[in-house]
Specification:
Elements lengths: L2 E5 L4 H12 L3 E8 L14 H15 L3 E5 L1 H17 L6 H20 L4 E3 L4 E5 L5 E5 L16 H5 L1 E2 L7 H10 L21 H5 L8 E5 L5 E5 L22 E7 L4 E6 L7 E7 L5 E2 L10 E4 L7 E6 L2 E9 L6 E6 L2 E11 L1
Parallel strand pairs: 1-2, 1-4, 2-3, 4-7, 8-11
Antiparallel strand pairs: 5-6, 6-18, 8-9, 10-11, 12-16, 12-18, 13-18, 14-15, 14-17, 15-16, 17-18
Length: 355
């Protein structure tokens, strides 16, 4: 029997994780992390943390286990929100969920749990881990490819992984939902959450305008180099975006193909099949790569993901470059690339530019 602190979000996945560990006879404590209220940004109505906290409490009451709340709002603002704004100001598209997992869930939460006497922490991530003969650990993709969340865990390290438990990683989402319904968990029928980690589903322009002010600029056709529209700030657009361009009178829809932050220009490409939207090669930001256990090498059958829920694509990796066997749809600078060898998640890095 182990003493385990389970991160409870108020959702069904983490609730089932706690249930399974409790059924196994472990000493379980449920912990809700209050990382964000939105009050300082005027969007607290879009961040229903109080309801999530109450739902987490209900799960603990149902399982008859202790309940705690850890407040990491200052840390979350420093390590996730500041990163979020800075990346947008630099013209990139950040991935706050990856940073949140690395810095908060498997950083501050893990440390505080251990300080409080826990031996391990557990989360509701769809992920698995495996111990090798030499004692090292590999992060393994989840059994459910539709819910696999290892893309968001590509920066976890050996120490963090050694203290982490993923109780539902071997299950599919329907199986998790069935367990919740059969055991009558209080959140059994609750819908999955969407949006930014701990913030929720916010309106991005409204959120960014708290610090990045509107600034009108031109939208330029990347092929004809002609002006085809105007925007209110290129920071708020990401590669591949279609909505919000407000370009009318075209026989095909336009998609964001790039940005020039210094000139406040958004480049758009007409038609999803436009070659300017498809790339073979990605250059990762120097110093951004981290490897969980194994470093990629030529003998490996590598695949990579450039976004969540993407089917991993065959590739090669060397010298901070990821070269794909087939063209990839409009990767965005600032986003994460996760490299995989069969079912083993090796790690990844941040996209700096594409070719």
């Amino acid at each position: 029997m182990s003493k385990i602190y389970v991160a409870l979000s108020g959702g069904v996945d983490s609730a089932v994780a706690a249930l399974l560990l409790n059924q196994q006879g472990h000493d379980i404590t449920g912990v809700f992390m209050k990382n964000w209220s939105g009050e300082d940004f005027g969007i607290n109505n879009q961040c229903p943390w109080e309801k999530e906290q109450k739902d987490a409490q209900k799960v603990c009451d149902f399982l008859q286990i202790p309940f705690k709340t850890f407040n990491f709002e200052k840390e979350y603002r420093k390590d996730v929100i500041e990163y979020f704004f800075t990346e947008y100001e630099n013209g990139n598209t950040p991935n706050p969920d990856v940073m949140c997992n690395n810095k908060v869930k498997f950083g501050y939460f893990l440390d505080k749990a251990i300080e409080n006497g826990a031996e391990y922490i557990a989360t509701g991530h769809y992920a698995q881990k495996r111990e090798n003969p030499d004692g090292s650990l590999d992060l393994i993709r989840a059994a459910d490819p539709n819910k696999d969340q290892t893309y968001f865990l590509n920066r976890i390290n050996q120490t963090q992984l050694s203290k982490a438990i993923f109780p539902i990683g071997h299950l599919t989402k329907p199986e998790v939902r069935k367990i919740a319904l059969e055991t009558k968990l209080p959140v059994a029928e609750k819908k999955d959450s969407q949006g930014i980690c701990f913030i929720g589903k916010v309106e991005l322009p409204e959120f960014l305008q708290q610090r990045i002010k509107p600034k009108k600029g031109d939208i330029i056709d990347i092929d004809s180099e002609e002006k085809v529209g105007e925007h209110d700030g290129c920071w708020w657009y990401t590669n591949g975006q279609r909505e919000g361009l407000r370009i009318g009178g075209s026989d095909k829809p336009y998609y964001v193909a790039g940005k020039d932050i210094s000139k406040n220009i958004v480049f758009a490409a007409k038609g999803k099949d436009n070659p300017k939207l498809w790339v073979n090669e990605i250059l990762l930001k120097k110093g951004s790569t981290t490897w969980i256990n194994q470093t990629p090498h030529e003998e490996m059958q590598l695949t990579a993901m450039i976004r969540y829920r993407q089917t991993p694509s065959k590739c090669k990796y060397f010298d901070n470059r990821v070269i794909f066997d087939s063209k990839q749809w409009t990767p965005a600078p600032g986003q994460m690339v996760t490299l995989i060898n069969n079912d083993i998640v090796l790690g990844g890095g941040i996209i700096e530019q594409t070719k």
